[in-house]
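Reading a protein record of the kind used here takes only a little practice. These numbers are not coordinates but entries in a learned vocabulary of local backbone shapes. Here is one such record, which you should read through line by line.
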Amino acid sequence: MTTIAKNTICLWYERDAEEAARFYARTFPDSSVGAVHRAPGDYPAGKQGDVLTVEFTVMGIPCLGLNGGPGIQHNEAFSFQVATEDQAETYTSPDRAAAKRAFDAMMTMKKIDIAVIEAAVRGEKPSA
């Protein structure tokens, strides 16, 4: 028997719910993408086969990604906060200069851009 969650976090996107769910599943432990629900036919904001919703789990927490169509702007009003035991768990490199570059890059962001942070760790300048 499957247990249905009593509470599910619903995240709205314009059209990138599946991409976001797959990113979260790659990024966080105990995370996965479940069912992807597609439009059975044409509808006002899209076409048959478009992803409507995506069921996914982030660190054991059930989530639903909803493609709400034009006008939906994902923003910094929502974020996953992950508690770690220590700096080693948060950032595994013993290179303190790389950690500082990652922190400095992150502090300039409203929305976290992992690619920019990873480039900073490698000592690369972000592309303009």
